[in-house]
Design goal:
CATH topology of the largest domain: FAD/NAD(P)-binding domain
Largest sheet: 7 strands, antiparallel
Number of strands: 20
CATH architecture of the largest domain: 3-Layer(bba) Sandwich
Structural class: alpha+beta
Radius of gyration: 25 Å
CATH superfamily of the largest domain: FAD/NAD(P)-binding domain
Number of domains: 2
Length: 416
């Protein structure tokens, strides 16, 4: 690189982490030339679709020790990085730029506009203000270190899919998670180690199961994977694939590697009435049988369950539409208790959503300095976001890691 010119940063990836790195580096050092390289024709695509198009910016958790427990992988790394840029800083960063965030009951934080476009426009304004260049439909195929005659670092050379070459002083890789280790080849060639990527945050497929007819129905439940310690409690959504919702997505994150080893074939037990033990549930059904003797069982649910789900679970137990509580045989009552408290289904496969795809795996964290996001092996090479072996459960946690790592990388690069 020509020492008489201003220094250049190339950020590979036009997602949340990459953009946050780019705009902050450009703001902190106005002599730094910043270029964002995006291999697709879309910028900030996960920001756009997150939270049903509202953008779940972060989570209203302001205690680092509590926050890191929401990440199946990367907890020790985040304990260090969150001290530099945390949820409070995210709130303030956006507020300083006219974007107010609100907190929902479950702790998720969204822009008050309930539109992801608000976040996108904020980041794009920042990019324009600090003259960040954006180059679309450019795929990097290799990175090579440049050295002088004495083997001292002279920056980096990037090669693109079309054969073009670009030189730069600093590189920040923020290209998201990859579905297969072969897609990391250009980083493996540099000598970095990659933890094998596997999907995280996916739905459980129940091919041919009649419960799929209830798609759109949601209930609070406890979901447990048999033969493991994995279980989660929270909203479960029935879809035309099978089971989804926050409880299932969290379970898929914590069990990402274990479920991959099982080739996504396993049994799940759902307790639709998780506040009851099985003994308490059987006692409750006995009391209903006595106190509501003349009422039709399927007529109305005696529990806090959607009516369609209650009727379905009754049918699964062998209860017809005209059966009254007084006529409920003991054997069928036991089947109803099992249907409510130990509803067992066989999962065969998963569904991930391309735009919101999250992986467990990535660049090994021991090879990255948590205080700077710089490669411990290759000075001048930085990482931000999901390319690292860090992933959180659903609820704004992955975005917080994106903002944190992007900001820390920017701060270090701007100071060099």
């Amino acid at each position: 690189m020509n020492k008489n010119k201003s220094k250049r940063l190339v950020v590979i990836g036009g997602g949340a982490a990459g953009f946050f790195c780019a705009v902050n580096a450009a703001r902190m050092n106005n002599e730094l030339e910043v270029i964002v390289i995006e291999k697709t024709g879309k910028l900030l695509s996960k920001v756009k679709v997150s939270g049903g198009g509202r953008c779940n910016v972060t989570h209203a958790c302001f205690d680092i020790a509590e926050m890191v427990r929401k990440y199946p992988r990367g907890q020790n790394f985040l304990k260090k990085s969150f001290h530099q840029f945390f949820t409070k800083d995210t709130n303030e960063w956006f507020a300083d730029r006219g974007v107010q965030l609100k907190t929902e009951e479950d702790g998720r934080m969204f822009p008050v506009t309930d539109s992801s476009q608000t976040i996108i426009e904020c980041l794009m304004r920042e990019a324009n203000q600090y003259r960040v260049q954006v180059r679309m439909n450019r795929e990097v195929t290799s990175i090579n270190k440049l050295t002088d005659g004495n083997n001292r670092s002279e920056g980096w050379q990037l090669t693109f899919a079309d054969g073009q070459i670009m030189e730069t002083d600093f590189v920040c890789v923020a290209s998201g998670g990859y579905s297969h280790i072969t897609k990391f080849k250009w980083l493996l060639d540099l000598g970095h180690t990659v933890e094998e990527p596997v999907p995280s945050l996916f739905t459980f497929n129940l091919p041919g199961h009649p419960i799929r007819q209830l798609m759109g129905v949601s209930a609070n439940a406890r979901v447990k994977i048999t033969g493991s310690k994995l279980n989660e409690t929270g909203p479960v959504l029935i879809t035309h694939w099978g089971l989804s919702g926050p409880a299932v997505l969290r379970l898929s994150a914590w069990g990402a590697r274990e479920l991959a080893d099982l080739k996504y074939e396993f049994n799940v037990v759902v307790n639709w009435l998780h506040e009851y033990t099985m003994d308490a549930l059987r006692a409750e059904l006995t009391m209903l049988r006595r106190d509501g003797a003349g009422k039709k069982i399927t007529g109305s649910t005696p529990f806090k369950l959607p009516q369609r789900l209650w009727q379905f679970l009754c049918e699964q137990a062998g209860i017809d539409a005209n059966m009254r509580w007084a006529d409920l045989p003991a054997a069928i009552q036991n089947r109803l208790a099992t249907s409510l408290g130990e509803f067992t289904v066989q999962v065969k496969g998963k569904t991930t959503f391309k735009e919101e795809f999250v992986t467990a795996g990535g660049i090994k964290l021991s090879e990255i300095d948590a205080n700077t996001m710089e490669s411990r092996q290759l000075p001048g090479l930085f990482f931000a976001g999901e390319i690292m072996d860090v992933d959180g459960i659903t609820g704004g946690f992955n975005f917080q890691h994106a903002w944190t790592s992007g900001y820390i990388a920017a701060k270090r690069i701007a100071s060099l």
